[in-house]
Design a protein that fits this description.
Main location: membrane
Number of strands: 6
Protein name: Transporter
Number of helices: 25
Largest sheet: 2 strands, antiparallel
Shape: globular
Radius of gyration: 26 Å
Keywords: Disulfide bond, Membrane, Metal-binding, Sodium, Symport, Transmembrane, Transmembrane helix, Transport
Strand content: under 5%
Distance between the termini: 10 Å
Organism: Capitella teleta (Polychaete worm)
Helix content: 55-70%
CATH class: Mainly Alpha
GO molecular function, one term: serotonin binding
Length: 601
């Protein structure tokens, strides 16, 4: 509108927060006291500092996958060209889901189980499924952290033990990384039967997997790994037992230390001979690969599992936010940091891979590995060739431990918050419940600490979460956008933030994101490949067990729908209405409502 002749300003009435600081503080304190009616514990906590929440979200999203998966996926799927589908999937798939779950948790202020009676009661089984998945992840993910702890302890000596052959665990086929320590030395490619000292240390000293013949014969518990696992779970317990008061302080270390170490490793990596060729290989775009649908599938899977919607973690963490917290800004900041960290880790990894390829006189394709092989074999082998190898090993494995710990803190917090909000009497005995949960997860993880534990771990890794979580997140998106209603959800966000989510977000929530998840879920079934660990092929009965594990989290959804249907009285129409309409809304104090304040243009 053009200005009038007297230059008067036209007021535009919008919903804004009260500008009175005492009133806002009073409002926030009152928000934390509600939710008794909704199944949440009385006097619900809120984060002591905003940074506690942000670091927790960053710590959850930035995990081991950022270091050991993204760099390999990027280089294997077109290098720099991979960033195109990656960013598209981030904008239209990952970020909207990330924002949606943060906003949902902040408005409803409850965990993954009780939240559904405020959204769509018949989907309450989703919450139980999330808890099952969280327990599976805790069982194998903490074992990987235990491996890192074993490496860390082994690094406190004058020379890292995987630098040389001649140890009790080595075989005659071993060749030593110490041969590469001379900067003028170039080692020719080894015969096919030769194995690096780093590889033998991981397989024969850390895992001792040679004492197992397969998943049917996993052998006894390797107690050194089991003791490391106990140490990990003790740290996890003391980070979680007091709720966000304790975990919010722990993440100040676990979420920030990895960045310090990454920068140190990057500086060291780019000064190594051959590092530039590794970085070029990492970033060199292969534009023709963009025509391959597999590249787009890989980008969608990477962004989804990196940001982690659907695990109930973002819901749980944001449920402790103050009502008027700007979760929109939080979603943009934390998700961007996560993507940047993945990109940064690629430089750290490929600078070292380029160095190793040059020293061994081979190509980067033969050096690069994905997953555990990268962080427990290839990178340690490179570290063994450096002067002061013990120092570099200590900070590297300390980084892996902290990357893993804050993710496992948040994963278990999602389960704990969900259970404590659903059954408040458990929440009043949180310390005992967390202790019992930790003991349960430890005994469940014992199988992964056996000589054949890596076979069990790979089975849980393939079937415990990846397939089921896609289905669960898809149903969560459908329940919120189609049953609860994307407009009603946008109204909720407006009440918190003072502005309504734009049409882009609403279209993503209602259409693009559900399609994104549904396609990923279908493709994960269509392109499922039987698990292979090295040269070991899993027997059919083990694969069948894997699908039972997958189904054990999803089965809660139809079970609850059926039980709810038969327990509800009335006609079919009445039962259906009862199952899809919210039973309650979160209680809010009268003075917490948004105030009408004129904003002048």
């Amino acid at each position: 509108m053009p200005p009038t002749s007297n230059n008067s300003k036209q007021p535009l009435v919008t919903y804004t927060n009260s500008t009175s600081t005492p009133a806002t503080k009073k409002d926030d304190e009152k928000v934390a006291d509600v939710d008794e009616e909704g199944g949440g514990p009385p006097q619900r906590e809120t984060w002591g500092k905003k940074l506690d929440f942000l670091l927790s979200v960053i710590g959850f999203a930035v995990d081991l996958g950022n270091v050991w998966r993204f760099p390999y996926v990027c280089y294997n799927n077109g290098g720099g060209a991979f960033l195109v589908p990656y960013m598209i999937m981030y904008i239209f798939g990952g970020l909207p889901l990330f924002y949606m779950e943060l906003a949902l948790g902040q408005f409803q202020r409850c965990g993954c189980i009780s939240v559904w009676k405020r959204i769509c009661p018949m989907f309450k089984g989703i919450g139980f499924g999330i808890c099952v998945i969280a327990s599976y992840v805790a069982m194998y993910y903490n074992t990987i952290i235990a491996w890192s702890l074993y490496f860390l302890v082994s690094s406190f000596r004058s020379q890292v033990p995987w630098a040389t052959c001649g140890n009790s665990w080595n075989t005659p086929n071993c060749y030593s990384a110490a041969d590469l320590s001379n900067p003028n030395a170039t080692i020719l490619p080894r015969p096919n039967h030769s194995v690096s000292a780093a590889n033998e240390f991981f397989d024969r000293s850390v895992l001792e997997i040679y004492k197992s013949t397969g998943i049917h014969d996993i052998g006894n518990v390797k107690w050194s790994i089991a003791l490391c696992l106990i140490g990990v779970f003790v740290l996890v317990y003391f980070a979680l037992w007091k709720g966000i008061k304790s975990s919010g302080k722990a993440v100040w270390i676990t979420a920030t230390l990895p960045y310090v170490v990454l920068i140190i490793l990057l500086i060291r990596g780019v000064t190594l001979p051959g590092s530039s060729s590794g970085i070029k290989y990492y970033l060199k775009p292969e534009w023709k690969k963009l025509k391959d649908p597999q590249i787009w599938i890989a980008a969608a899977a990477q962004i989804f599992f990196s940001l982690g919607p659907g695990f109930g973690v973002l819901l749980a963490l944001s449920s402790y936010n103050k009502f008027h917290n700007n979760c929109y800004k939080d979603a943009l900041v934390t998700s961007t940091i996560n993507c940047f960290t993945s990109f940064l880790a690629g430089f750290v990894v490929f600078s070292v891979l380029g160095y190793m390829a040059e020293k061994q006189g081979t190509s980067i394709e033969k050096v690069a590995q994905e997953g555990a092989g990268l962080v427990f074999v290839v990178y340690p082998e490179a570290i063994a060739t450096l002067r002061g190898s013990s120092f570099w090993a200590i900070i590297f494995f300390l980084m892996l431990i902290t990357l893993g710990l804050d993710s496992t803190f948040c994963g278990l917090e999602a389960l704990i918050t969900g259970v404590c909000d659903q059954w408040p009497w458990i929440g009043r005995k949180r310390e005992l419940f967390v202790a019992g949960l930790i003991v349960y997860c430890f005994f469940g993880a014992l199988a992964t600490t056996t000589y054949g534990g890596n076979y069990v771990l790979a089975l849980l890794d393939a079937h415990g979460a990846p397939i089921a979580i896609l289905c669960i997140c898809f149903l969560e998106c459908i329940a919120i956008s189609w049953f609860y209603g994307v407009r009603r959800f946008a109204d909720d966000v407006e009440k918190m933030l003072g502005f309504r989510p734009g049409i882009f977000w609403q279209i993503c929530w209602a259409g693009i994101s559900p399609c994104f998840l549904f396609v990923l879920f279908i493709l994960s079934l269509v392109y499922y490949k039987p698990i292979v660990l090295g040269s070991y092929v899993y027997p059919d009965w083990a694969l069948g067990l894997g699908w039972v594990i997958t189904a054990s989290s999803l089965i809660w959804i139809p079970i609850y729908i059926v039980v709810r249907f038969f327990m509800t009285k009335g006609s079919l129409k009445d039962r259906w209405r009862s199952m899809i309409q919210p039973e309650e809304m979160p209680s809010r104090p009268p003075d917490e409502t948004m105030q009408m304040t004129p904003v002048y243009l």
